[in-house]
Fold this sequence. Notes:
This protein is an alpha+beta fold. Helices cover 59% and strands 14% of the residues. The protein has five helices and six strands; from the N terminus they run αββαββαββαα. It has helices at 2-25, 50-53, 74-83, 106-140, 146-179; strands spanning 40-43, 46-49, 54-59, 63-68, 91-92, 97-100. The strands form two sheets. Strands 3-4-6-5 form a four-stranded antiparallel sheet. Strand 5 (91-92) and strand 6 (97-100) form a beta hairpin. Helix 1 packs antiparallel against helix 4 and helix 1 (2-25) runs parallel beside helix 5 (146-179). The protein is elongated and about 70 Å long.
Amino acid sequence: MSEILDTARGRMEKSLEALRANFANIRTGRPNPHILDSIEVDAYGSTMNITALAGVRVSEGTMLLVEPYDKSILNAIEKAISQSDLGITPSNDGVVIRLPFPKPTGERRKQLAKDCKACGEEAKVAVRNVRREANAKLERDGELSEDDVRREQAKVQKLTDEFVKKIDEATKAKEAEIMEI
């Protein structure tokens, strides 16, 4: 039965990691280099991730600097950033690309906080689905008595509660980051 619990724990961990990845892509007033992780650039005859082609660092607390390892692909990187859904206009000076991150308005902060709550709820639903599937497997397993099934289901519930709490904490932390002026 521990394999059912281990499988459930692994899947719940993946849900939490997916939530954290979603949060990394939510733009706050603070620049985060991971916001560029999903951007693909057409370079050298193939599509490559921007982080494989350039160094990305935070400058002045409100700007990301993208410094390509090869200056010949600077324009391709700029084009990929412009076409992405970041909503930031890149500035190319021939050496680096600057991405300014203006502070979001109060209304935008509230919308971002609402988006965070929605992401958190999706993660909770995923964790609860894992719980439901684990409980169903326990009930289908003919080797366990009813009392053993209930004990194992209590362990699954405890695991679910643990992950829901982690999701709530991550969501609250991200909302606090967004609402921070």
